[in-house]
Amino acid sequence: MNKTVHWGILGCARIAATALIPGIKGSANGEVLSVASRNVEKAKEYARKFDIPRAYGSYEELLDDAEIQAVCVPLPNGLHKEWTIKAAEKGKHVLCEKPIACCAADAQAMNDSCRQHGVLLMEAFAQRFHPQYQRAQEMIQEGRIGKILRITASMSRSVYPADDIRMNPSLGGGALMDLGCYCINTARHLVGSEPVSVFATQEIGQSGVDERTTGTLYFPGGELLQFDTNLYLDEKHFVQGCTVYGEK
Amino acid sequence: MNKTVHWGILGCARIAATALIPGIKGSANGEVLSVASRNVEKAKEYARKFDIPRAYGSYEELLDDAEIQAVCVPLPNGLHKEWTIKAAEKGKHVLCEKPIACCAADAQAMNDSCRQHGVLLMEAFAQRFHPQYQRAQEMIQEGRIGKILRITASMSRSVYPADDIRMNPSLGGGALMDLGCYCINTARHLVGSEPVSVFATQEIGQSGVDERTTGTLYFPGGELLQFDTNLYLDEKHFVQGCTVYGEK
Fold first, then answer.
1. Which residues form a coiled coil (chains A, B) (predicted)?
2. Do the chains contact at B234 and A247, CB–CB below 8 Å?
3. Rg over CA atoms, chain A
4. In chain B, which stretches have pLDDT less than 50?
5. Of the residues B98, B147, B236, B248, which is catalytic?
């Protein structure tokens, strides 16, 4: 039995080039077999550059490749639902970029479709598997800080160029969707439950996306997350941080 | 001209014994001349212990001591207004424990009275003069972190005994008044302006005081403070911290 997983990548995203492809190449059982772009020349160039055997001129063609077992969806947030469901319908497992969808109803529809077609669906919040976060989680579970009382977290950077997909509200852009979602995902992961109430404020820029979201999430055990995500940093800077405070 | 300032202390508070009296004794121009308690024996014992020449059995007697120029009011928060105004009416300068009053109207009345009687009024937020905070402020003013975007702060400890004055709502007790006020005062100091809006939640214990207050203050320049103050820590622990994030 051949245990190699053949991956296909929808689109020529930079995140795939810098993180996903090296990850699959470095894995014990993964191989990137195909890449697809709406522009076939772009797909071919990307395939040459990263030593990927097959290049397609449309996402549909890749999904019709019978040898592909799993696809990565590093497309803009606003396209996650459409392409995840199309992939599921073709029987492909899906690793979808974070955040998985633009609203809960979309995420539910994606989840339902993948269950129906018997394929796995995973949201690419890689930090859940980062040794640093795993060690933090272990220390919390060992009772080293007692019950969690408060988490502060931030992820911020400078503003994206006006034509960046992350400045496009119709594609699910903005600071919260691109960066702040990490703060929320990490807190949900470390606390181990879902928030019961939220207070947040947003500053919406001329582009129509939030350039800042600041909020507090209240968890059922009394834990809280205070986070800030913004695109207001000086160009040279990027901030990512999370601090967990316990009762001891 | 004798430049020594003769101080009087209203009450036998522990904060006076541990911080204020050593501070005055260590100063170039201060002398603790009198202490007053509603229990004259208590005042006499306190005076003996700290080498204070005069002990009175009522606060009024101390305010009638013509040689006293300045008084410390380390009484419970709910008594600050009454005794600050009485001291001002006797022509005494006032150093009042933090927070200066239980509401803005009381603080205004205290301020008005001190102005009217030509005496100084100061709120004892000592950390404004702490070298560490002064250095932080200098670094901010030098532009080292650019414009302030966010401050996170906390001051928390374990719950006080049920009969502690800080567990008494009618005396201005609770976590916010006792501890959280430091977070707010520090942020106002470092940002250099007053908040324009606030969102906060409180958890009120059986005693009737807040055992936790969690909030966000929005400043006019876009700076924000996210703070948490609670009485939920393990007995052995005390947390005090403030982190300032800038655009660079």
1. none
2. yes
3. 19
4. none
5. B98
